[in-house]
Amino acid sequence: GQNIDQPTEMTATEGAIVQINCTYQTSGFNGLFWYQQHAGEAPTFLSYNVLDGLEEKGRFSSFLSRSKGYSYLLLKELQMKDSASYLCAVREADKLIFGTGTRLQVFP
Amino acid sequence: DSGVTQTPKHLITATGQRVTLRCSPRSGDLSVYWYQQSLDQGLQFLIQYYNGEERAKGNILERFSAQQFPDLHSELNLSSLELGDSALYFCASSASGGALSTDTQYFGPGTRLTVL
Question: Residues B49-72: what's their mean pLDDT?
């Protein structure tokens, strides 16, 4: 079966670092994506991992371990505008399977 | 702006009615995906079209149907609407329809459907 787990909610302080974890169990794996979604808006693409290791993109980094079925999204130097939901999605063949998302609240 | 457009932005209708949601993919993208997102729920994949042909099906109800036209725009038809169909409906597009693992889906702004 398919199962993607993320914490439901997280809070952090402006300027801090936060790590959002994602574990997955899928029948196939062809890449893992992270999206950001502000309430009522479209998900926007943040990062993509298909090989093990860390991908860095400015303030955001994403890590993948395929053997452990595990990924994390690291957000540095948090800003108020980073308050949003973060969606982990696994590609299985042609389909993207989304987790329910982690709602991050950043406080001043 | 992702380059994916969806109309209308909002739709309010009554139970039992039928509606059509429209999506235009990014220029050059051949694949269109439809998702449903209910309040506090994750994105549920409904259906995918690639270059006019149905490629994959997810949790799409029989009351729902979709098609992709020769100009690559897509329409999602929802019929016999129920209160539970109230949700955000997103369209996404990608270049190769998942044939390449790097294929990224870009989302449109969504259509908010309210069934009263």
Answer: 94
